[in-house]
Amino acid sequence: MKNVLLSIFAFALSTSASAQFVIVDDELPVLASDIDKITYEENDRFSELLLPACLANNPKTTIFSQALQLTGLADTLQAWNYDNYHRDEEKYKYQYGYTTQSSFFNEFRFKMFNVFIETDSVLAVYGIHNLEQLKAYAKQVYDETFPEDVSVSDPTDRRNSLNRFVSYHILGHGNPYWYLTSFNGDKYFTFWQDVNMADMSAWYATLMPHAALKCSYPMGEENRGLFINRRGLKDGPDKYGKQVRGVKILADGEQGFDHKCFNGYYFYIDGILAYDKTTRDEVLGSELWRMDFKTLSPDIMNDSEGLRGDYATCDCPESPDPILRPWMGWDHIYEWDCMENIKGDMTRDSRGLVATRAHKYYWDWQGDAVYAIGDYDMTIKLPPLPAGEWEVRLGTYAYPSRGAARFYLNGEMTIDSLNMSKEALDDLFAQSKCMKAPRECTYGMNDYLADCTGPVRYPLGRIKSDGKSDNYLRIESLTGSPGNTSDAMFDYFEFVPKFVYDNQEIPEE
Length: 509
Prior knowledge:
Elements lengths: L1 E6 H7 L6 E2 L7 E2 L3 E7 L9 H6 L5 H9 L2 H4 L14 E6 L2 E6 L8 E5 L2 H6 L5 H15 L15 H7 L2 E2 L28 E6 L6 E6 L9 E2 L18 E4 L8 E3 L2 E6 L7 H8 L4 E4 L5 H4 L2 H5 L23 E4 L6 E3 L7 E4 L14 E4 L3 E5 L6 E10 L6 E6 L2 E8 L5 H6 L4 E2 L5 E2 L3 E2 L6 E11 L6 E6 L7 E6 L1 E6 H4 L8
Parallel strand pairs: 1-4, 5-29, 7-14
Antiparallel strand pairs: 2-3, 5-6, 7-8, 9-10, 10-11, 11-12, 12-14, 13-14, 15-30, 16-18, 17-20, 18-19, 19-29, 20-28, 21-27, 21-30, 22-23, 22-28, 24-27, 25-26
């Protein structure tokens, strides 16, 4: 057996080669089974594989790349790992109901990003041919959206208009095109969504402070593909009469949609992406957000390929071994101090969260869920909501073994004790403290979650967002479960603006 010192550049190249071999700099490939230990060091060539260099070396993205450098956000996109994270422990077994399940640790914790980019030719359509003209365009848009910051001239200041323009194009996780929504481009019979009622959509926080964007995949005749900040249904407006095109992600010839770098992906878009008043008010501020739990943390989203797997060919209840059957997906475990946006009380008897792989016939939205292990007490940083009043709801499955929990929104207790077991449903429905699953959500062969008795939504309370501050949800277990047992399942959250939950003319469902 060999101990190998592998440059990060060689390691990056080896990730795209066969998993049976390791490429050691300029030497011949080494059989992975002959290597006992690998350690890594950076060399000068490694930076060529990171997002800033990939964009700088692309002749189609010169203006955006210059803006990335001027704002200092290129330095942010140089990040690729957490130096203090390493796990030799491979597997964690936990008790769920009457079964023992296996989840798997990530050996390393990587930082990843997605970047949406207007090419020089797209910017030229808007009369933008150089960096100065892009700065002028950004100032025009963001001075109107944030008039209180018109005097901020330092491009590295997060309140600066150019800084806002660039940072709004960046997500804090890295995924290929087909993982930005629940539609994988292939399994036509498993959408998790009735596409005649709503587009398949997902919402993500951007690197611009307190600003999110929406990705959606409409299934219209004229509108089909992945759009950002689109509002509507298929080829027309939604039931509220709202329709905003947004921008569409473009394929780049044989390259396809994905431009893969070592620490993420970048995508071409066909128009200018901006957090303007239309986006803030018409797209984001007046529509219900239904967010799968995994989208709340970049660390979980970075594992979306392994979490989805090929749910069409494997619907077995256990989690497949990622070494023996990686194509099937596998459950991941995240300790409380190893997730962005989600933290837990480390003094309690709780290891963390388990994110499950997708199952075709599970009565969960998108076929997956997250389980809190043991006697948990966790705090979730909520996505950046535009100013206004919002109702927060939890979507889950009421199983007999579910426990009770206490809920806080922005430090204020909103529910003292919520029994989330199936036995408590009748009483909760009678008190209007529980709702059926959304009619538009489906599972398996387009069966409706609303027709099942277990999938439910719990209204957790309402918050008043100022659009400029962070909001938090704290969930505290009241059951006192042992450390390796799960009695808490979280599927998705809904963030519902007053325009929807208090609409006197158009019912929500």
